[in-house]
Amino acid sequence: MHASDIAVNVPTVTVHDPVALAVRVMAVSRLPGLVVVDERSRPHLVLPGTQVLRLAVPGAYQEDPALARAVDEEHADHFWQELGDLTVGDCAPRRPVKPVTVRADATLLEVAALMARLHSPLVAVVDEDGVLLGAVTLERLITSLAVFGHVD
Amino acid sequence: MHASDIAVNVPTVTVHDPVALAVRVMAVSRLPGLVVVDERSRPHLVLPGTQVLRLAVPGAYQEDPALARAVDEEHADHFWQELGDLTVGDCAPRRPVKPVTVRADATLLEVAALMARLHSPLVAVVDEDGVLLGAVTLERLITSLAVFGHVD
After folding, report:
1. How many C-beta atoms lie closer than 10 Å to residue A113's C-beta?
2. Which domains does chain B have, with CATH numbers?
3. Chain B residues with CB inside 8 Å of A120's CB?
4. Residue A5 reports pLDDT greater than 90
5. How far is CA B89 from each of CA B46, B86, B95, B96, rounded to the nearest angstrom?
6. Do A71 and B114 touch (CB under 8 A)?
7. How far apart are alpha carbons A147 and B61 in whole angstroms?
8. Which residues of B touch A57 (CB under 8 A)?
9. pLDDT tens digits, one per residue of B82-121
10. B18 touches chain A (CB under 8 A)
11. Which of A74, B36, B63, B67 is the most buried (most CB within 10 A)?
12. Mean pLDDT of the residues in chain B
């Protein structure tokens, strides 16, 4: 089996989109992460879901659990309304990172090895021009291996 | 809202269970990770899905993408039949790691901050004795915040 056999269509965002939108896109799509593309639909970044969440949770709360605990309940449910117009580009990691991608003809072992090595539950599948074709999720990979790989 | 409001029941494994079983439990439950418990149902480890996959993909393939690419397709679909009887304990990280847990009365902001800081799409919810009550998934957290948090 190849990556293209189990890839699914995924909604995408660009670095110009608001973080609040990115989080909502991921929530509605029920994906374990998000593919950020450039203007030519080529993956620029593939973010695991916890990284997307990191964009939305103010750094202070991440670094200091006691601070997060101190926020009253009423406010705690609305913390990300403070995001305002921050974009994905504003919040994404500064150092250039190669996006987590494979070609359509990659085997499931290649995809699994990449997910495991880069800690990414989402891998973008691209064509020979680097344009996004779809994405493989960890869940779909494992299910495919279990169903078709004749696991004992 | 509290962690206990959005937690779900989750199947668990122990360090004595085979890795192959752990992967299948995660696949069938469709969770983004796995809670490993001790003999008193207290979380010992909370593993993100990519970490569970790391247990199953031989290290050589993770470190050398060219090696993974060199495996023929027939073999690539069956790579984890080589796991044999390896247990979760055999493969799990050696250095002691505090399991990713919160108490039932934690706010969603606390859970979000923990997920973001520890890169874990799964957080175990425990009672005052540290016994597992359930778990919160990243997807459920974000959906709850979007639906109940009145995101603009």
Report:
1. 30
2. 3-149 (3.10.580.10)
3. 50
4. yes
5. 13, 8, 12, 12
6. no
7. 22
8. 109, 112-113, 116
9. 666 788 888 777 677 888 999 999 999 899 999 988 989 9
10. no
11. B36
12. 86
Task: State whether residue B81 sits within 8 Å of chain A by CB.
Answer: yes
Contact of A48 with chain B, judged by CB distance below 8 Å, is answered with yes
Determine, for residues A57 and B151 on separate chains, whether the beta-carbon distance falls below 8 Å: no
Q: What is the pLDDT of residues A67-115, one digit of tens each?
A: 777 777 666 666 666 667 788 888 777 677 888 999 999 999 899 999 9
Are B116 and A148 a contacting pair at CB < 8 A? no
Please give the full DSSP string across B47-107, using - where no structure is assigned. EEHHHHHHHHS-HHHHH-HHHHHHS-HHHHTTGGGGGTT-BHHHHS-SS-----EEETT-B
ipTM above 0.90, yes or no: no
| Among chain B residues, CA nearest to A63 | B117
Q: Which amino acid is at B33?
A: G
Q: Given the structure tokens 């085979």, which residue do they identify? A: B18
Q: What is the pTM of this model?
A: 0.86
Q: Which residues contact B96 (CB under 8 A, 6 or more apart)?
A: none
* A69/B30 CB distance under 8 A: no
